[in-house]
TrEMBL record:
This enzyme consists of two polypeptide chains, which are synthesized in precursor form from a single polypeptide. This is Glutathione hydrolase proenzyme. It comes from Amphibacillus marinus. The active site is at T356. Its EC number is 2.3.2.2, 3.4.19.13. NCBIfam families: g_glut_trans. Pathway: Sulfur metabolism; glutathione metabolism. One of its GO terms (molecular function) is glutathione hydrolase activity. InterPro entries: GGT-like_enzyme (IPR052896), GGT_lsub (IPR043138), GGT_peptidase (IPR000101), GGT_ssub_C (IPR043137), Ntn_hydrolases_N (IPR029055). One of its GO terms (biological process) is glutathione catabolic process. It catalyses: glutathione + H2O = L-cysteinylglycine + L-glutamate; an N-terminal (5-L-glutamyl)-[peptide] + an alpha-amino acid = 5-L-glutamyl amino acid + an N-terminal L-alpha-aminoacyl-[peptide]; an S-substituted glutathione + H2O = an S-substituted L-cysteinylglycine + L-glutamate. Belongs to the gamma-glutamyltransferase family.
């Protein structure tokens, strides 16, 4: 078990770590966490709880994810860690030439063009089929009920919803976006904090997904509805694209950091960026560094990780380098030399060529799940399929239109993906799931949370609550309002262009559950930057 300090830590926290014995669910919405706990109490396992929570979050936090999301999962069952990649592929007929012919120099953010096949419903069904205990239709019942009967909007959710509405009202004026406003801004405005919001369309679609084990979404009535609306708006996505989708079970990747194995999903996810950065720092006695040098080295390491990740990460079938090469000690030794006393502008190394919700669950049997799903950039593409409540993600926006780039747009290809679940083990025993949602903040959040926990012994809640930084680009670094001013000034003297954020909304939102291998006691932390909650018993 991690040696954590529950009484003395350098950061003031707004919550305390939660302890439990029989089960735990950590999520960004209290009602969703309770849904997962209810499944555990009904005799379900951690996988059942994760599926039910994820489905509920499509209703309870539509500002970050939806039925049209992608998903990834790391699942610990019976002394083994499994990875599930449920990110969808681009439409078979899309191409760089076709997108440029539409007048775009870069992939657009909104509309049908950046829409790839949604993977979340397929992920729920695949997890249930392989590891679940309760009936699939029972797992989606709470989400269906919340959609049909409604629920009151929580504070951070209401703020995020209003931000998206204000942006969409200015930018999404084309007829193809009309269904978004009908669904998410009834009566011409977003639901307010404390106001009841319901969506019968969500309820109807989730019910059909539940009754068909998600088959309708990919090869049935729902697929027809998606494909028909795509065709009516000159979209590339077809019924054949949906029918071709299946989630993929993959082997997770890891590095050993100060005695612990830190696990991430392999590319096309960006989790490898966190591992690259930790690999660069693993020879450091971090506790002997000054606070300023620690932050400086973290920032420089994550910049090197992003330089490589954004150059090489794409569909694993199309990758020109191997994950093992990016994570090798030899390559780390080479790249580590680039971390000097002043801020740098790193370039990718030379190698052999070859909006989001996060939740964590654990049960009394030792099963644990690290699960993440997202539409991207909040509500995603701005496209909502009429009469379904399905807000489609816009993951294709990360494709490059440069033919020489590894992540260049091609038909039937998975793009570089920002959403990443994490998992920690020690000596082949599970410690537990962790994650920090939030676009390109995610590997940066993973790095900071893991170092807080391993190097400084912060318990889960303190590890999450500690002030965060976020590298933006070049030498630009954003720090939270609570970030120590003297440290920020010292980093600026090292060449970092420090900006102090006025709020913490962009610094990621995480969850952690650790398990003591000897006693089975669970301890969890939830994000103070959102409406996060832990449900436990």
């Amino acid at each position: 078990m991690l040696k954590t300090d529950f009484l003395n830590h350098p950061h003031q926290v707004s919550r305390v770590t939660t302890f439990a014995k029989n089960g735990m669910v950590a999520a960004s919405q209290p009602l969703a966490a309770q849904v997962g706990l209810d499944m555990l109490k009904r005799g379900g396992n951690a996988i059942d709880a994760a599926i039910a929570t994820a489905a509920a979050l499509t209703v309870l936090e539509p500002t970050s994810n939806g039925i049209g999301s992608d998903a990834f999962a790391l699942v610990w069952v019976k002394d083994r860690l499994y990875g599930l990649n449920a990110s969808g592929r681009s439409p078979a007929t899309i191409s760089v030439e076709a997108v440029k012919a539409m007048g775009f120099d870069n992939m657009p953010t909104f509309g049908w063009t950046p829409v790839t096949v949604p993977g979340a419903p397929g992920a729920w069904a695949a997890l249930s089929k392989r590891f679940g205990r309760l009936a699939f239709k029972d797992l989606l019942a709470p989400a269906i009920n919340y959609a049909a009967e409604g629920y009151p909007i929580s504070p951070v959710l209401g703020d995020m919803w209003n931000r998206s509405f204000q942006r969409f009202k200015q930018e999404l004026t084309d007829q193809q976006f009309e269904n978004w406003f009908t669904t998410f801004a009834p009566n011409g405005k977003p639901p307010q904090i404390g106001e009841l919001w319901r969506s019968p369309d969500h309820a109807k679609t989730l019910k059909e997904i539940a009754e068909t084990d998600a088959e309708s979404f990919y090869r049935g009535n729902i697929a027809n509805q998606i494909a028909q609306q795509s065709a009516a708006n000159d979209g590339f996505l077809t019924k054949a694209d949906l029918a071709a989708f299946t989630p993929e079970w993959v082997e997770p990747i890891s590095i050993n950091y100060h005695g612990y194995d830190v696990w991430e999903m392999p590319p096309n996810g960006q989790g490898i960026i966190a591992l690259i950065a930790l690999n660069l720092l693993k020879n450091e006695d971090v506790k002997q560094l000054s606070v300023v040098d620690r932050y400086h080295k973290q920032i420089e390491a994550i910049k090197l990780g992003f330089a490589d990740g954004q150059a090489y990460v794409t569909d694993p079938v199309k990758m020109q380098v191997q994950s093992m090469d990016l994570l090798s000690d030899r390559y780390a030794d080479q790249r580590r030399q680039l971390i000097q006393d002043q801020a740098s502008l790193p370039e990718p190394g030379t190698l052999p060529r070859g909006g989001t919700v996060y939740l964590a669950t654990a049960d009394s049997e030792g099963n644990m799940v690290s699960f993440i799903q997202s539409n991207y950039m909040g509500f995603g593409s701005g496209i909502v399929v009429k009469d379904t409540g399905i807000a489609l993600q816009n993951r294709g926006a990360d494709f490059s239109l440069d033919p020489s780039h590894d992540n260049v747009l091609e038909g039937g290809k998975r793009t570089y993906h920002t959403i990443i679940p994490g998992f920690l083990t020690k000596d082949n025993q599970p410690i537990g799931p962790f994650g920090v949602m939030g676009g390109y903040m995610q590997p940066q959040g993973h790095l900071q949370v893991i170092m807080n926990a391993i190097d400084f012994g912060l318990h889960p809640q303190a590890a999450l609550d500690a002030p965060r930084w976020q590298w933006l680009e070049a030498k630009q670094v954003l720090v939270e309002p609570s970030f120590p001013t003297d440290v920020a000034q010292a980093l600026a003297r090292k060449g970092h262009q420090i900006q102090v954020a006025l709020e913490s909304v962009s610094f990621g939102r995480g969850q952690i559950i650790w398990r003591d291998p000897k006693t089975g006691i669970l301890q969890g932390g939830t994000e103070s930057r959102t409406d996060g909650a832990i449900a436990a018993w």
